[in-house]
Amino acid sequence: MCGFVCRLTRGLHVVLCRTGMLSKAGVLRIFSQTELGSFALTSRFSWNVIANTSTFPRGFSHTVALNTAVLLRARRMTEKPPAKHCCSAGVGTGESCASSPHVKRVAIEGNIAVGKSTFARILQAENKHWEITPEPLSEWQNIQTTGEPSKKSQQNVSNLLQMMYQDSSRWSYTFQTYSCMSRIKAQLKPVSSRLLNLVQPVQIFERSVYSDRYVFALNMFNMGSINDTEWAIYQDWHTFLVQEFGKRLELEGIIYLRAQPQVCKERLSRRARPEEKGITLEYLETLHTQHENWLVHKSTQVHFEHLRKVPVLVLDVDDDIQNNREYKMQIITQVKNYVSSLWAS
Ligand SMILES: Nc1ncnc2c1ncn2[C@@H]1O[C@H](COP(=O)(O)OP(=O)(O)O)[C@@H](O)[C@H]1O
Ligand SMILES: Nc1nc2c(ncn2[C@H]2C[C@H](O)[C@@H](COP(=O)(O)O)O2)c(=O)[nH]1
Prior knowledge:
The protein is an alpha/beta fold. Helices cover 41% and strands 20% of the residues. Strand 5 (61-65) and strand 6 form a beta hairpin. Helix 8 crosses helix 11 (281-296) and helix 10 (261-271) crosses helix 11 (281-296). Residues 1-26, 31-39 and 45-98 have low confidence and may be disordered. Bound molecules: adenosine-5'-diphosphate and ligand LCKSPGMD. Residues 110, 112-118, 267, 270-271, 317, 320-322 line the site of adenosine-5'-diphosphate.
């Protein structure tokens, strides 16, 4: 038999017949045949991730029809060097990593001060197979700037969270660019080796690139804090980046923590974060509505096919989870059952 056996995904072995000359790097694309006879790109892998590429042909351009109506085509692509480590790969190589297939990724979503961080800590303590990635709040509160040109060496710190609450029309768009970028980085962070060695590991993110758009940015736009032009630009780059990073930003599950806005207001006041002292009940109500529209009524227009299919676990957390052991165990059981269902699917 001519060619190589490449393990592309779990359980899928592909025989590549070769023609042509040698190449060191490239991208392998898998196309599925559609009913109309055309081919849709389903996966893309950096060659150096799947095999020793020194044996691949230069200028390789070849098509192999497999008996499962899957067409394989490999093409030399030298513009973008393949990443050294699949999980730190750049834009455009997203599918090469497809994250770790045996780690489930779940986001905790919910209104401000509903109790996401508290809940995340409870989950972390409950199950060592669940690892939490907190929301990058401190990054938003501590942006290193160089200050005035005359004081170049002096480092200043900007608190973008505070700036956004103090002058929302000036800073909301800037805030969403930064919050979204930091969420992308958080979601792309490689899975820890500790987690990778566990059975049925789960990566839990506090919020996601999706609530950034379908809750906050949309809300800011509806409130007039983000104008038409900013909204168009935000949506353009958001769609582009989410599509480019592909599977690496996808979630397998969403846990929606829900409480009445009034309850969130009370918890917010108790927490007393200085930047948030101007937050009104009305603002929390609009955010509540955005969550409900996106995750419960499904009336928000979402732009990513996979996101529409993500199963959502809704947990009502109006009651005190911290000081009521029975209630806490009941909620944890719901999460365990939900996570088990993700593994079963
Ligand atoms: N279920 C709950 N019942 C009562 N208080 C809670 C509950 N969950 C969180 N809190 C309290 O509410 C405040 C906000 O919680 P936090 O976890 O910081 O919210 P979030 O991360 O959603 O902004 C904290 O003071 C926390 O102790
Ligand atoms: N305008 C936006 N504000 C956001 C966004 N994500 C979080 N936030 C604010 C809300 C809180 O004041 C603070 C932290 O949120 P918690 O709910 O975790 O306490 O940051 C956003 O995308 N846009």
